[in-house]
From TrEMBL:
Molecular function in Gene Ontology: acyl-CoA dehydrogenase activity
Keywords on record: FAD, Flavoprotein
Signal peptide per UniProt: none
Family statement: Belongs to the acyl-CoA dehydrogenase family.
The species this protein was found in: Actinoplanes utahensis
Name of the protein: Acyl-CoA dehydrogenase
InterPro entries the UniProt entry points to: Acyl-CoA_Oxase/DH_mid-dom_sf, AcylCo_DH-like_C, AcylCo_DH/oxidase_C, AcylCoA_DH/oxidase_NM_dom_sf
UniProt-listed Pfam families: Acyl-CoA_dh_1
Length: 569
């Protein structure tokens, strides 16, 4: 289930994608662990990685839509292979992933635009090996795009001059194209929004500093009377607002695969260290609590991969009449990334002081895994978004054709014509119970299904009052319970498609049963919870079905990771 550079061969992808991904792995492996660790500690700009990417045409091939790629037939926007690349970059370090991630975001407003000049320019810049940037957030307002202080003043020739400061902008030090969000000085409200393309090399673009103490460059920059020609404008008015949100829908999906890659590399180190270390005449892995913690970490990591892999299929099969991906996207941003934190914490409890050592990958993973749930809003922002889908998801299913596994070399062009960023509450879903019914013979799936059905009964019989619906702290507890049901659905769908054994699925759902019980207990303790809701919460605390044979079978999968991979020096 885990990515292993020693055996990696993405045979499910087309030949050029396969070649590029294998070349990327070879680049990092040949570079070696000492160089990886040293550049991280020294906070050295990753010029060698960017030079490799430029030479191989990596970003150009993976990030140029087919419509802008002629005559190169290997270029396309393919979410399946983008996810594979994102996981590999996370495996070798968040900083390498980050420069890719913000390039994805910077291209979002461009590929959504009808501006042929800027589309052609972006494609040419990618061919030349440039990276991009997405300049939305500001220090005073964060990503509150309603309050931007990047002001565009009409220049009289159909263009503008732009002045203002942007903050927390990745690649802002070197980006060949920066997609900048601002507002017109002469037009009030949403009609005044503008997205435009800027160049970090322009004399009116002033780089201020790197705002993080990292190898990655997260800039703050200032535009001073920056000339914005009519041909530089990507979007205006409501379309600019929609482009911002739709870019996040496309680009922030990569957070989940970064978390997966980080956890995979850390797990090889942790299991190998624990199994080789002797205490009281026995390997550390002989202790029952260690076996439990590493088994939990492994099962949670597999669940992260299963959910994310299945979410890719919904992204690739999306269209105007199927927008289910808009629920699964905040799930990847929130649920998968927070699970990554739990995975690292479980392993850290096992390897203890080893997790602080400077020459390990784990030391970097323990720091970097914290950032991913916070790189797109915060957990509560995404949970609040997830709650918008809850009524239709749980109670009003629609009929859809089954979504197949999507590894075909197709261009995911719908992602750049998503349309207005509204109507989330009206999106319909297929019946979530179908996936659970298909796995009803697995003990802990059946037990979790009891809890899920109970949650539906809670909402029918003791729904949050109008006052409770204004209490975000209360709603977040409800949101965590709902998110577990969605999480379990896609895990089951992918487990079935991928032929995952029942023992591992049972182990995953034993964890979900425990997690549901923990969130129910949290709901019980909320000040705003009514007596009826509190009674429901305690009544739906469950113990997972125990099975020592299952536990041992999954433990053997964990133990097989010991010595399976170690990065060369």
């Amino acid at each position: 289930m885990l990515f292993n550079p020693n055996t990696y061969d993405p045979a499910h992808l087309d030949p050029e994608s396969r070649r590029l991904l294998r070349a990327l792995v070879a680049f990092f492996e040949q570079r070696g662990k000492k160089a990886l660790v040293k550049s991280y500690i020294d906070r050295a700009w990753y010029s060698d990685f960017l030079e490799f990417s430029a030479k191989e045409g990596l970003f150009a091939t993976f990030l140029t839509p087919s419509a802008d790629a002629a005559p190169n037939k290997d270029k396309r926007w393919d979410t399946a292979r983008n996810a594979a690349l994102s996981e590999i970059l996370g495996f070798y370090g968040l900083d390498y992933w980050y420069t890719w991630q913000v390039t994805v975001l910077g291209l979002g407003p461009v590929w959504q635009s009808a501006n042929r000049i800027q589309r052609t320019r972006a494609a040419e810049l990618l061919d030349e090996g440039h990276v991009m940037a997405f300049a939305l957030s500001e220090r005073s307002h964060g990503a509150d795009i309603y309050a931007t202080d990047m002001i565009l003043t009409p220049a009289g020739d159909g263009g503008f001059t732009a002045s203002g400061t942007k903050y927390y902008i990745g690649n802002g030090n070197v980006a060949g194209l920066v997609s900048v969000f601002g507002r017109r000085a002469d037009v009030d409200g949403p009609a005044g929004y503008v997205f435009f393309a800027a160049d970090s090399r322009h004399e009116n673009y002033h780089l201020i500093k790197n705002v993080v103490n990292k190898q990655m460059y997260v800039s703050t920059f200032e535009l001073t009377d920056y000339p914005v020609r009519e041909e530089d404008v990507l979007h205006t008015g409501k379309a600019a607002f929609d482009a911002a949100l739709n870019t996040v829908n496309v680009g922030k999906f990569n957070l989940c695969t970064a978390a997966i890659g980080i956890c995979e590399h850390a797990m090889y180190e942790a299991v190998t260290h624990a199994h080789q270390r002797m205490l009281y005449g026995r390997p550390v892995t002989a202790f029952p609590h260690v076996r439990r913690e590493l088994t939990d970490a492994y099962a949670r990591l597999v669940a992260m991969k299963l959910f994310s892999d299945r979410a890719v299929d919904y992204f690739r099969s999306a269209g105007p009449d199927d927008r289910r991906y808009l629920l699964f996207n905040p799930m990847t941003k929130m649920k998968v990334t927070t699970e990554g934190e739990k995975v690292v914490d479980l392993m850290w409890d096992v390897i203890a002081a080893k997790g602080f050592e400077a020459d390990t990958y784990f030391d970097k993973a323990a720091m970097d895994i914290r950032g991913l749930p916070k790189l797109e809003g915060t957990v509560h922002v995404n949970l609040a978004l997830i709650l918008k889908f809850m009524p239709n998801y749980l109670f009003d299913p629609a009929t859809y054709e089954p979504v197949p596994t999507r590894h075909d070399p197709a261009d995911d062009e719908f992602l750049f014509r998503q349309g207005p960023a509204r109507g989330l509450g009206a999106i319909r879903f297929h019946d979530w119970r179908t996936a659970y019914d298909g796995a009803a013979g697995i003990a802990n799936v059946a037990r979790f299904r009891e809890q899920a059905d109970g949650f539906c009964a809670l909402l029918r019989n003791h729904a949050p009052s109008e006052e409770q619906q204004k209490d975000l702290d209360f709603l977040l507890a409800v949101g965590h319970l709902f998110a577990l049901i969605v999480y379990g659905q896609l895990i089951l769908e992918q487990a079935s498609l991928a032929g995952i054994g029942a023992e591992l699925v049972d182990e995953i759902f034993a964890i979900l049963v425990r997690d549901f019980s923990a969130y129910a207990t949290e709901l019980h303790g909320k000040t705003a919870t009514t007596e009826e809701q509190a009674a429901w919460a305690l009544a739906h605390v469950r113990r997972p079905v125990a099975d020592p044979t299952r536990d041992d079978a999954v433990w053997q999968q964990v133990l097989a990771l010991a010595g399976a991979y170690e990065m060369r020096d």
